[in-house]
Design goal:
Elements: E1 3-6, H1 7-16, H2 21-35, E2 41-44, E3 51-61, E4 66-71, E5 77-82, E6 89-95, E7 99-109, E8 112-118, E9 121-126, E10 129-134, E11 139-145, E12 152-157, E13 163-167, E14 172-177, E15 180-185, E16 193-199, E17 202-207, E18 224-228, E19 234-236, E20 246-252, E21 255-260, E22 265-270, E23 273-279, E24 288-290, E25 293-298, E26 303-312, E27 315-317, H3 320-326, E28 331-334, E29 337-341, E30 346-351, E31 354-363, E32 366-373, E33 376-387, E34 391-395, H4 396-399, E35 403-409
Antiparallel strand pairs: 1-2, 3-26, 4-5, 5-6, 6-7, 8-9, 9-10, 10-11, 12-13, 13-14, 14-15, 16-17, 17-18, 18-19, 20-21, 21-22, 22-23, 24-25, 25-26, 27-33, 28-29, 28-35, 29-30, 30-31, 31-32, 32-33, 33-34, 34-35
């Protein structure tokens, strides 16, 4: 049976646990009040999920609000869209070994975001229009303008050349017919469609959020949807419900990689479930994957980073010595906070602005601890611990309860 937790409170629940169901609900209510944010629900299968770590290959800065990256499959070039604030946007051209070929390869665009290539034509969503660029000539050849669209963003194209474009603020998905932008879909389930990907006979959509605040942060985190190209029927991708403020989505390892822009997290969603691949910087936008290389633009960091996606294996820690060697004295966490269990038996950290404190001991094959968050007593629980080189997985109630995965963080020393 699968268990459900709220990611915004999962750091607390996984490390400190709850003694009873009623106590768990009290804690969730308390933490939701403290974080003053939306509850982000995730589902984790009680089995080994495929997990990856990111090994940085190279980094390039000097961009101006890079929103999307496209690594062409049959050439050495990478294209990066630059929103460039209130100034005219532009497209950069790079090589796959991390060198800038032409920073302002094509200029004079509006606010270019998502990118897709079909033949020699590069399409980009650009505010209320779609710009089409001839990659051989490096020139804008036409712009398709919509009087209705608000913020055209990502682009996905079928093998036959049918173009789909998301309108994040407008809440619609458009297609191009006879040289015009035509509304293809508007659905109550998908409020702010962002990332798009064509997967066979389906359009995969990463919804940014269930609502936007004035600062464009999400009120309620978005999900990954599958839309039939044949009849427009909509289903939630398995383990893709309430992931985050979603931006880019790409096919990887018989599943998908999806970026959560506001909190800088990257998730893998595949047949084994959902797992956190990396907790990166805020503003990770429309990613691309080529073989085992991830290209990630950071909208607010004005940079592009290439990572190698390296598979990891879980190791169960069965003794205190195992834990002292591989788990103790390391900070683990996610966007909501982080904590550490020190080798001298103490627990400390911070969550939602509240100080976490407690003690731990090793019993049989489990990490057992008692903790407090501020003035709130969070009880006692024994936890099964699994680790990789970069992550820790905690399963409450001696391996039968709630389960969550966290990324190793830098020490706060």
């Amino acid at each position: 049976m699968k268990k459900y937790i709220a990611v915004s409170i999962s750091l607390l629940l996984s490390i400190i646990g709850c003694k009873t169901k009623n106590k768990e609900q009290e804690v969730k209510k308390e933490i939701k009040t403290m974080v003053k944010g939306a509850e982000i629900v995730t589902e984790v299968a009680m089995k080994d999920a495929d997990t990856y770590t990111l090994k940085q290959l190279w980094e390039i800065d000097g961009f101006s609000m890079p929103e999307s990256v496209l690594a062409t499959p049959n050439s050495d070039y990478i294209y990066v869209s630059n929103v460039n604030g209130s100034n005219p946007g532009f497209i950069s051209r790079l090589t796959k070994d991390g060198k800038v070929d032409n920073l302002k390869w094509v200029e004079g665009l509006d606010s270019p975001t998502g990118l897709a290539l079909h033949g020699d034509l590069l399409y980009t969503g650009s505010s209320s229009r779609v710009d089409v660029i001839d990659v051989e000539k490096g020139k804008l050849v036409k712009s398709i303008v919509s009087k209705e669209a608000k913020t055209l963003n990502d682009v996905a194209i079928t093998k036959e050349g049918k173009v789909f474009v998301s309108d994040v603020l407008g809440g619609k998905i458009y297609t191009i017919e006879d040289g015009k932008l035509i509304k293809w879909l508007e659905a109550k389930e998908i409020i702010h469609p962002n990332g798009l990907y064509i997967d066979g006979n389906n359009l995969i959509v990463a919804d940014f959020a269930g609502g936007l605040k004035p600062d464009f942060s999400p009120k309620d985190y978005g999900s990954v949807y599958k839309i039939s190209l044949a009849d427009k029927s909509i289903t939630v991708v398995k383990d893709g419900d309430k992931v985050g403020g979603l931006d880019g989505i790409e096919k990887f390892n018989n599943g998908f990689l999806v970026s959560s822009n506001p909190n800088g997290e990257l998730y893998s969603i595949n047949k084994s479930g959902r797992s956190l691949v990396g907790a990166l910087e805020k503003g990770i936008a429309d990613i691309d994957v080529s073989e085992n290389t991830l290209y990630a633009p950071f909208l607010f960091g004005n940079k592009l980073i290439a990572y190698n996606l390296v598979p990891e294996k879980w190791t169960r820690l069965k003794t205190k010595n195992d834990y002292l060697k591989y788990g103790a004295d390391n900070y683990y966490g996610e966007a909501g906070g982080m904590s550490v269990a020190t080798s001298d038996g103490k627990i400390k950290g911070e969550f939602a602005g509240q100080q976490l404190s407690g003690t731990w001991e090793w019993k049989d094959t489990y990490f057992c601890r008692t903790s407090n968050l501020g003035d709130l007593d969070l009880g006692y629980n024994c936890i099964a611990i699994d680790v990789t080189n970069t992550k820790m997985r905690l399963t409450l109630d001696k391996g039968t309860g709630l389960q969550v995965v966290y990324v190793k963080k830098k020490s706060k020393k």
